[in-house]
Amino acid sequence: MNKTAEKQELLDKIVEAIQDVKGEDIMIFDLSNIENSVAETFVICSGNSNTQVAALAGSVEKKVRNELKERPWHVEGTENAMWVLVDYVSVVVHIFQKQVREYYDIEELWGDAVITKVENEF
């Protein structure tokens, strides 16, 4: 499997894992054409509480580990679960509580990215 297909499979699993725990406002940012970006792709979503944010991060890690045998290179933010980052190097997942996401306005910060909004399945 080539790198593009592997990355797409990883993205699909991440999105499924977020949808499994009813994550909201899922967006995929393609940063591959942006100079000096920290990753090729961001997946961003929101949860309604620190409990849900922690559950979303746990769901992503578990599904990717169980189905793709991959572990994140780095995870941070789990202590207070206001903003959890799960870093798979080529794909970085940002899971925010709604008000924190609004405050940091990541969509505006990475406005040059190609942004795909994932429709909720519920």
TrEMBL record:
Q: Which domain of life is it from?
A: Bacteria
Q: Where in the cell is it found?
A: Cytoplasm
Membership in a protein family: Belongs to the Iojap/RsfS family.
Taxonomic source organism = Chryseobacterium wanjuense
Give the gene that encodes this protein.
rsfS
Return the protein name: Ribosomal silencing factor RsfS
Q: Which GO terms describe its cellular component?
A: cytoplasm
Q: Which PANTHER family match?
A: IOJAP SUPERFAMILY ORTHOLOG, MITOCHONDRIAL ASSEMBLY OF RIBOSOMAL LARGE SUBUNIT PROTEIN 1
Pfam families in the cross-refs: RsfS
Q: What does this protein do?
A: Functions as a ribosomal silencing factor. Interacts with ribosomal protein uL14 (rplN), blocking formation of intersubunit bridge B8. Prevents association of the 30S and 50S ribosomal subunits and the formation of functional ribosomes, thus repressing translation.
